[in-house]
Amino acid sequence: EYRLEMRGVCKSFPGVKALDGINLRVRPGTVHALMGENGAGKSTLMKCLFGIYKMDEGEIYLDGEKMTILNPDDALHKGLAMVHQELQPIPERTIAENMYLGRYPLKNFGPLKVIDHKTMNEEAAKWLENVKMPYDPKAKLGSLSIAQMQSVEIAKAVSMSAKVVILDEPTSSLTDNEVEALFRIVRDLKSRGVSMIYISHKMAEIREIADDITIMRDGTYVGTWEVKDISDDEIVHQMVGRELTNVYP
Length: 249
Ligand code: ADP
Ligand code: MG
Ligand code: MG
What we know:
Belongs to the ABC transporter superfamily. This protein has 249 residues and is α/β, with parallel strands linked by helices.
């Protein structure tokens, strides 16, 4: 039984088949590395997952149930959260206000669930404590480091009972200490049954934090392994594909 399953995902742009039958099977409470060279299709796959792009073909299952995901808001409400660096946080708003952005669906014209500032701050403080973020209710989001903003995003995901959290190259601008802090959060989420998709090119990180790995190459699905069963050399080999060495028949 998988937490998240993507089956046979295809997506073309004019002149390029970006995804050609991609499979992704993420077990509950695991970190699943998604690897592939630049242009392999990792971001496109995640954009299909979040409804940013409409897939040409393919299916998405969450806990065995087939899902159609319309847009990123819909994804969030169905239990999928994305943590990346080009978020659209509002720097001049407080941390709590950012955590509550987009939380309540606006598509209904019925009575809107609203939350008062006191309750919002109390709730935010509780969730931020989970990711070891000291909470200053007056601090603006823009005053935080990238690592701290990521912690806020993760706290938001957890507070919305995210089943799958996608981390797209989360350590690219973190210090060693910040990476260690992030990994502590990741391990804590795992222990609480949250699944994560971890996009990274850093082999040492994959070894340290990931359980499973799926490799993509030129928009195609190469395979899925348990990290412990595949060597670094083999990972690289699978990412770049076999060179044509046998030039003589
Ligand atoms: P990765 O994240 O693995 O580096 P991408 O998903 O960004 O790869 O890109 C996969 C392929 O799809 C590339 O050839 C890229 O040029 C193409 N591609 C991605 N997005 C678009 C788009 N919006 N329009 C046209 N081509 C795109
Ligand atoms: Mg890229
Ligand atoms: Mg990418």
